[in-house]
Automatic annotation (TrEMBL):
This is Thioredoxin-disulfide reductase. The keyword Transmembrane applies. The keyword Transmembrane helix applies. The chain crosses the membrane at residues 6-24. Keywords: Flavoprotein, Membrane, Oxidoreductase, Transmembrane, Transmembrane helix. Pfam families: FAD_oxidored. It comes from candidate division TA06 bacterium DG_78. GO terms for molecular function: oxidoreductase activity. InterPro entries: FAD/NAD-bd_sf, Ferredoxin-NADP_redctase_2.
């Protein structure tokens, strides 16, 4: 983990956290995302997500979350496995 300051620190790496990371880094903000469990959250364990726009036949949760993680990292979101306490 970089010891520099961040503009945004996101706690939780589910779909919403990954989306926040994408938007933060695209806006030019230094963004750190912290997740203690699975990157992608519970959606990662879902066999088929049928209500996500753009996938009329559904998409495997693991595939969707891996794609979102890759996109967040491509834009510059730093993703760290860590538990936040306090």
């Amino acid at each position: 983990m970089d010891k520099n300051k961040y503009n945004i620190i996101i706690i939780g790496g589910g779909a919403a956290g990954l989306t926040a990371g994408i938007y933060g880094t695209r806006a030019g903000l230094k963004t750190l995302l912290l997740e203690k469990g699975l990157i992608g959250g519970l959606a990662t364990t879902t066999d088929l997500i049928e209500n996500y726009p753009g996938f009329p036949d559904g998409v495997a949760g693991k595939d969707l979350m891996e794609t979102m993680k890759a996109q967040a990292e491509r834009f510059g979101t730093e993703i760290v496995q860590a538990e936040v306490k306090g």
